[in-house]
Amino acid sequence: MRRYVANHSPFARMTRIMVHETGLRASVEQIVAELRVKDSAYYNINPSGRVPYLIREDGVGFEDSDLICSYFDKIAETSIWSIPDNKEGWELRRLAALARSFTDGVSVWFRETMRPEDEQSKSIINHERQRSRRLADLWEKEIGSPLMQGPLNRAQIIMVCGLGLEEWVQGFNWRDGHPKLTSWMDRISGQPSMIATNRSNT
């Protein structure tokens, strides 16, 4: 299988973490896609130009981190990304949605800063900065959930990838005033799959 990524993408990082956690590294080739470039060869592979993108052994393409992570979970016969069909499953969905909202917003902020300075929208940057602060305040309370403290799951992976954008986004100082969230991130970042997929190892 071939998996197309961008080193800075938190959504691609989710799939990279899953490759490590599911033991599929030997089965999945990683290719860094050339994005936001006119006539990039990658557009012939995935016309949307988005990452992550997985091409299965049968040639079928999968776009979207949730789809790809679910597929890895299935073929590896693990339950890292899966959601149980019970009350705990709904709580996991809720936390994963909050983590996705956080990560989506910071990603919009980051993409805006990647534009030429005279094309950047200060209002978008300020809006997403404020959103990230509000959500960091919320996560300072939510991070104590047993689902965020127990075995690795989709909510934890999504949140790590959102918080990890601090390595890429100037001014994304989520640690200020959030000691519980900081402690959680520092602890989980020491796991082998997190170390292998952080900025210094991309």
Topology, pairings included?
Blueprint: E1 2-5, H1 10-22, E2 29-32, H2 42-45, E3 53-55, E4 61-63, H3 65-75, H4 87-113, H5 122-142, H6 146-149, H7 154-163, H8 179-188, H9 192-196
Parallel strand pairs: 1-2
Antiparallel strand pairs: 1-3, 3-4
Helix pairs in contact: 1-3, 1-7, 4-5, 4-7
3D structure, described in words:
By secondary structure, this protein is α+β, with helices and mostly antiparallel strands. It has 2 domains: 2-75, Glutaredoxin (3-Layer(aba) Sandwich), CATH 3.40.30.10; 87-191, Up-down Bundle (Glutathione S-transferase Yfyf (Class Pi), Chain A, domain 2), CATH 1.20.1050. It is built from 9 helices and 4 strands, in the order βαβαββααααααα. It has helices spanning 10-22, 42-45, 65-75, 87-113, 122-142, 146-149, 154-163, 179-188, 192-196, and strands spanning 2-5, 29-32, 53-55, 61-63. It has a 4-stranded mixed beta sheet with strand order 2-1-3-4, covered by helices on one side. Helix 1 packs across helix 7 (154-163) and helix 4 runs parallel beside helix 7. The longest helix is centred in the middle third of the chain and has 27 residues, at 87-113. The chain is globular, with a radius of gyration of 17 Å. The mean pLDDT is 98.
Question: What are the key terms here?
Answer:
globular; 202 residues; alpha+beta; 2 domains; single chain; 4-stranded mixed β-sheet; Glutaredoxin; Glutathione S-transferase Yfyf (Class Pi), Chain A, domain 2
